[in-house]
Design goal:
By secondary structure, the protein is mainly alpha-helical. 61% of the residues lie in helices and 6% in strands. It is globular, with a radius of gyration of 19 Å. The protein starts with a strand and ends in a 5-residue tail after the last helix.
């Protein structure tokens, strides 16, 4: 299959609406709608979700940008620090985005201490992964974050890059994130006996385990991991997975009588 989609959905004069931006917008609108329902059901003021969403947007973008700059090409950005601010040139790392969300939610909780941090993280873990899946679809539309060469029947030729059939790694990742997001919805509604933080932990373990294996189908994107047996995406995924295991064991640990 050949892929040669234009990244711009439509243009009105100097304003261009790109598929990538549209995925962000759809993701955050759907997240806000879902979390408002959760807040209302649990007795919290749903108007607070607007502030929460703003925190998450800023945290995700800042975290993703800094992670890209310092984990994937630090030499270039340390030599050209002004380039760090040029987000429109591309370069967002999802691991940093998720870490940015955690920090942003922590800041939100400081302003709203009546809301439990782990309860809130449990309830935004799935929506955040759903946003991550949509963003990978945006990457696919942009013909970026491509996979390694492949002769599999579903390999795609990204004509804007080269004429080599490659793994559609962006779609692999999107499928993984969507799958864990929908599993999260089941766990958050049906599972019993899970304490605050357990759903977040399970989402971290499963999503980053999936990400770890998808990275085998990707071209290396980091100058730091050029000489390592695994790439930067896998290193960071292992860190998140271990964090998820630690969190699960900690929150599910039986309380002493």
């Amino acid at each position: 299959m050949e892929w040669n989609a234009e990244p711009i959905l439509f243009q009105l004069g100097p304003i261009a609406i790109r598929y990538y931006s549209l995925m962000f917008i759809i993701g955050f609108i759907s997240m806000s709608y879902y979390v408002k329902k959760v807040f209302q059901a649990d007795g919290h003021d749903p108007k607070l979700v607007d502030s929460l969403t703003n925190h998450i947007i800023v945290g995700m973008i800042v975290g993703a940008r800094l992670a890209h700059c310092f984990f994937y090409d630090p030499g270039y950005y340390l030599s050209n620090p002004h380039k760090i601010l040029m987000v429109w040139e591309g370069g967002l790392a999802s691991h940093g985005g998720y870490l940015g969300v955690i920090i942003a939610v922590s800041l939100f909780i400081k302003k709203n201490p009546k809301i439990n941090f782990l309860w809130l993280m449990d309830n935004i873990a799935g929506p955040c992964l759903f946003v991550g899946g949509l963003i990978r679809i945006g990457n696919f539309m942009n013909s970026e974050i491509i996979g390694k060469a492949s002769d599999l029947p579903w390999a795609i030729i990204f004509k804007k890059v080269d004429l080599v059939p490659r793994h559609p790694a962006q779609l692999y990742e999107a499928i993984g994130y969507f799958s864990v997001a929908f599993l999260y919805m089941y766990l958050s509604r049906k599972a019993k006996g899970l304490k605050n933080g357990a759903v977040l932990a399970i989402a971290m373990i499963l999503s980053f385990l999936f990400r770890f294996f998808v990275e085998f189908a990707k071209d290396n994107q980091s100058t730091i991991s050029d000489s390592l047996p695994i790439n930067m995406g896998q290193i960071l995924s292992l860190c998140f997975m271990m964090g998820g295991v630690y969190l699960y064991l900690k929150v599910q640990k039986p309380s002493r009588a």
